[in-house]
Every structure is written in structure tokens, then in C-alpha cells.
Amino acid sequence: MISEIRGLRYRGAAAASVVSMLAPGDPIQLRRDLDNKYDSNAVMMLALGTFIGYVQADLAVTVAEYLDEGAELRAHVVDRTDRNGIPYVEVTLPFTPPPT
Questions:
Q1: pTM, to two decimals
Q2: What CATH number is given for 2-92 in this structure?
């Protein structure tokens, strides 16, 4: 699966600085945002320990389910571009089901 990082432009200067350093292949940590009052399936993306945005909602449902079941998901940067002054990053979301 490929997801763009949602909400990146709202994360502030620290996130923008981290994102400017990202390159294809760099790891992205995925973490559930259990306190998100707008989306019960929200999945945060972090790079270099900095919260940079969310997995897009249509994919977060599946990603959240796997995280909740204990799966280790490994995301990586695919592409980073600038669109009208706004950074745009796509990441791969490869994962395997948790052990049964």
C-alpha cells in the first residue's frame, strides 16, 4: 500500500525540518493515535522521533486493525516532492499479518 502523509502542512516547523531531510527508503514509524477525537482509526507517522502526520483515512482502518492485533508494520519513504510550497511525501505501508 502507498499512503501520502496527511496533515503534514499543519505539523509546524519541526516536522517541516524533518521532512526536508527525508529521502526514499527512510523509515517511518507508525503508531496508533488512540486519543484522536476525530478518527478512531487514526495512525500517526513519525520520522526521526517527530510526529509528521497521519496515514490517510481510507488506509488507516486496515493499518489500525493490524497494529491493534500486534503486527509490526514497517513504512518507508517512496517519494518527497514540493507542491506549491507544501511538502508532499508518499510512504509504502508493507506489512504482514500478526502471528496466529
A1: 0.83
A2: 3.30.70.2330
